[in-house]
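Subgroup meeting minutes
Present: P.N., E.W., G.H.
Scribe: E.W.

1. P.N. recapped why we're keeping a running log of single-chain structure predictions: easier to compare across weeks, and new members can see raw inputs and outputs side by side.
2. G.H. added today's entry (207 aa).
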Amino acid sequence: MSSASDQHKAKPGSSASAPTEPNGTDAVEAAGAVEVTEAEPRSRMPIILALLLVLALVAGWIFVLFIYRPSHQLDELSDARFPKAAEKICAVTMAQVGDLPPASQAANAEARSKVVTQADALLGGMVAQLDTIAPTGNDKASAGVREWVADWRNHIGDRDQYAEALRTNSDARFLESTKGTRQLSRAIDGFAEVNKMESCSTPGDVG
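Output recorded in log:
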């Protein structure tokens, strides 16, 4: 007669022991390993993004400083013949205007009117010369040059009105025409600056 212990003896070929559940310590360590493995990619992401940002900034500065060559700005002429010729004409005239007494420092309104009138005569001669060398084509650039010369002529007209007003009103102020949302002188100066005609900017002696 077999005992109860004999009945529980393992049969030949069977596994010696049944699988066991992991104890509490092993489970915690396994879970911790999974968490660390999953957290590693996320912890590197801010560093990767920061490096990419730095590389982008460096590349941007290299492009701006050594590679980028700006295309023509608004109102910039691709043909430099007119700007070069105009700059020479304007430089002579502005030197003559600079030799006049400063209108803003004139002793009285009559003296100021006289100085402005003299300057306007010089500027009028300058514009007449610019008119003779302005391109006559139907393209946008040529039309832009002629428009700029016309702006100069209108600016001189504003100056003439100021000089005339000073003869009868010692408190007269220079009233300037506008072009779009800007004072006319700013439009004139902007075109001159973009096209490297610094001497062709308005003298600013009546502002």
